[in-house]
Amino acid sequence: MKLKSTLVMLMFSIISFTAAAQDSGNFKLDEVYNMSSNGTLHLRSEDADVKITGTDRSDVHVYIERNEEVKGMSSARGRFDVDVEERDGDLFIRERKPNARFTMGYYRLDYEITIEMPKTGSLRIQGEDDDYIIKSVNGTISIETEDGNVDLVECMGDDFEIELEDGDLRMDGGNGSLYVNVEDGDADIRNGNFKDIEIRSEDGDVLIETSLSNAGKYDFSGDDASFELVVLSGGGDFDISKDDGRVTASSAFDLIHESDYRVEYKLPSGEADVRIRTNDGRVRLSKK
């Protein structure tokens, strides 16, 4: 009888322990905050599906919903929470996770962050395993994340800085300066009008469409990465260095020099400086 009572108490403790741990990870926020029209929204999160849209509104609407489902045994120290701070015209959003978690069994996380902000504002984002869809935000955009994917749609600002590890970048539109550092993911960039580009890739495939500025500098480098550059307008000098990689170009490009490790092309109607370096990847040049 004593053993039976002990087992019942143990099972009750485990159920209570798991329920409390699951509840500690659930969170919901639906609020409006102040931010200046040219302010910066700072976001730090992990494992979220993030959607940010630039609109004509003069404030910021933040909706966050996070639900954990646990079937088994789980514990957590502390509760999940989000700190939001208005400061000097900027808005800071930062999550606070439980200090430690132990889980045995089934675990599922549904975590969504939806933000509507002034379209003239800027973004500074730090994430880990988040996926981002960002539309019509026309200020400076800086994103640093590990394994998540980034989609930028109709973001017509002049300064983009994006660092990814294993995620993919998809981008439609953009002006000014573009810096991309992606390790094993792919980058697909369309309809660009960039004056300066710096792209670093290790093993991914990079496709970029952009016009070329006469005074612009365009620098691409990778180990086993492949680069496809589509010129929408303009021209310039193209200097490509390689080890075992293959280089091809459409008939619009004039071949100036070719050796085992270096190829030079000229595209009339411009004076842009384009440099591409790859070890074993492919390089393809074309004009639209």
Automatic annotation (TrEMBL):
Signal peptide (UniProt feature, chain positions): 1-21
Keyword Signal applies: yes
Keywords: Signal
Origin superkingdom: Bacteria
Domain (DUF4097) ranges: 41-285
The protein, known as: Putative adhesin
Organism: Roseivirga pacifica
